[in-house]
Amino acid sequence: MDQLLNLEELGKLLTTYAPKVVGAIITLLLGFWIIGRITHFLRKTMEKRGFDETIRPFLASLISVGLKILVLLSVAGMFGIETTSFIAIFSALAFAVGLALQGSLGHFASGVLLLVFKPYKVGDLVTIGGGFTGTVKEIQVFNTVLVTLDNKHIIVPNGVVTSNVMTNISGQGIIGVEFTFSISYSDDIDKAREIILSVGKECPYILDDPAQGVVVGAWGSSSIDLASRPFCKSEHYWDTYFYMYENVKKAFDKQGITIPFPQLDVHMNK
Question: Does the pTM exceed 0.90?
Answer without folding.
Answer: no
